[in-house]
Every structure is written in structure tokens, then in C-alpha cells.
Amino acid sequence: VYDALIKEFEHSKFEPILELVANAYYSKGVILGELGESKKEIDTYDTFIKEFKDSKLDPILWQVAKAYFNKGIRQRELGETKNEIDAYDVLIKEFQDSKSEPILELVAKAYINKGTALEESGESQKAIDVYDTFIKKFKNSKSEPILELIAKAYVNKGVALEKLGESQNEIDIYDASIKEFKDSKSEHILKLIAKVYINKGVA
User: b/e per residue, 69-99, with b = 16+ CB within 10 A?
Assistant: First the structure.
């Protein structure tokens, strides 16, 4: 069904139809992933991104950003760490200045996932640099999901500093996160701050 819709309408000039075509590409990729067809899923995302990355429509651009993100996650599952990080890098580069909140939330998640991938690859300092860049760029965000990810970045940075044996810097970053988020109304953020107190106690 998706293939038939794509073939019939992919060259349409009508925006509502193009949105349907974009959704068909994206949905096809998701379903292929659910069926365990990882290579075909990634190929579908790549074709979709190539066709629609220059769209001016926010709903389509969100799906393009999500395709990059999903591609990164699938490549992580396949053990393709470099390709995973590359997918996040392109997502960040292409969309970090977007005015769309849902797209910026995907950018924020890409920063966190990139940092995690680097840390798991033993590149703790590079992971710290990623978290620092993310925190600096998004620290004034008013989006609660993004603020939750910033709190997570502080925690992850502290853990990475611990791995590098930098106990004082680890404690300093925990203190900064407590100061920043102790009055938050978000239950998720407060759970992260509780974890920060625990980590600080054993630092």
C-alpha cells in the first residue's frame, strides 16, 4: 500500500499529498523495522531523506528528523556505532536551528544518544564535550522534555568524569545540576536530581 501511494504521488506538487507521501515513506520504514528488516528499514529512511530533506513543510521535516533519529537507533542495535553517531551528527547539523519544538526535542535526544554512544565506546572526554555543547546550546529552553534531557546530560557528564578519575570536576557538575534544577516541578527531573545527590555522595 505504501509503495503504491509513493509511486503514484511522489512527484505531486500539492502539499497535502506530499505530506501523505512523506508519511508513507516514514511509516514503511517503521514497519520494516518492526518486522526485523533492518537493512531495508535504513534504506527506506535514506531514500525518504534524500527525497524530502529540502522540504519547507514542518510536518515533513519532523519526519525527516525522526528518520535520522530512528536510523541512528537501528544502527546502534546493529552494533554500527560510527554510523549511529554519523546519523545523529547530520540530524544535529541540519535541525539544531529549527523553530519547531518537536524537531528540537529530537535534536536534544540526538545529543544525548551521541554522548552515550561515545561513552560506551570508551571515549568519555568526547562524550563530555557533546554534553557540554548540548547544555550550552539548550540551557535557556522552556521545553520541559528538553530540560529533562539537560538534567540527564548533567548526570551523564558526571558519570563520564568519574570514569576519567576527575572526582572534583564530577562533584562540581553535580553541584551545578542541583543548583539548576532543585526547584523544578518535573517529577522526572527531580528523580534525576535525587540520583545526582546519590552519585555525589559516593564521588
Answer: bbbbebbbeeebeeebbbbbebbbebbbebe
Q: How would you write the pLDDT of the chain (203 residues) with one tens digit per residue?
A: 677 777 876 766 768 888 888 889 999 999 999 999 999 999 999 999 999 999 999 999 999 999 999 999 999 999 999 999 999 999 999 999 999 999 999 999 999 999 999 999 999 999 999 999 999 999 999 999 999 999 999 999 999 999 999 999 999 999 999 999 989 999 999 999 999 999 888 87
**C-alpha cell read off for 95:** 535541525
Q: How far apart are CA 152 and CA 183, in angstroms?
A: 16
Give 99's DSSP letter. S
The angle, 0 to 180 degrees and rounded to 10, between the axes of the packed helices 81-95 and 58-77 is 160
Residue 196's contacts (CB-CB under 8 Å, 6 or more residues apart) are: 154, 155, 158, 174, 177, 178
Report whether 62 contacts 102 (CB < 8 A).
Answer: yes
Encoded amino acid at 174, one letter: Y
Calpha distance 20→2 (Å, rounded): 10
